[in-house]
Amino acid sequence: MQGKPGINYNRKQVGDFILEKSIGFGSFSTVYEGRNVKTGEKVAVKSINLHRINLNAKHQTNLKQEIDILRKCQHTNIVQLLHTYQTNNHIYLVMQYCSGGDLHKFVQKNGPLKEPVAQYFSRQLANGLFYLHSSKIVHRVEFLHNQLFSKINICIKKKKKNENNNKNTTITITITITTIIPITIITTTQNQK
């Protein structure tokens, strides 16, 4: 099922969801535009190839962390995980579909943002960031591609800081649904003085 964005495949069904066309891909996954067969709701479905991810224990851990984090984040300006399904070959993450695409494409298509539009986007982005920060999660806004919107919904890229035994551990997790950036977790440990 992996392929180029925009190509319609044989409409595979996963649970209550039909995968209609691919809209993005990465090293271990392909993201599809999908639809709930019962309600007609449009969704994004991230299909993760277990054969590829099972080759590396670190990638398995990263995937578990991604799913746990997505389940915990519940905010109107954060892309929501709706369902998960697992087969022998794939894990499917059914997520909220952001019909407006990403901010990068929006700016490419429409040119620089006018001040009222920039204020509107900034306000929604700040609301989502405030939620993440209050949950002790830092969102690193590195790419316009990670700013998806119907309204503005943050595609999570976060940095979480935990203190254990006088050590700071920083975990950076990249979760995207329309870009080709793979999930990345970087862990650094420094002794506090």
TrEMBL record:
SUPFAM superfamilies: Protein kinase-like (PK-like) (SSF56112). GO terms for molecular function: ATP binding; protein serine/threonine kinase activity. This is Autophagy protein 1. It comes from Reticulomyxa filosa. Residues 17-193 form the Protein kinase domain. Keywords: ATP-binding, Kinase, Nucleotide-binding, Transferase. InterPro entries: Atg1-like, Kinase-like_dom_sf, Prot_kinase_dom, Protein_kinase_ATP_BS. One of its GO terms (biological process) is autophagosome assembly. Pfam families: Pkinase (PF00069). GO terms for cellular component: autophagosome; cytosol; membrane; phagophore assembly site. ATP binds at residue 46.
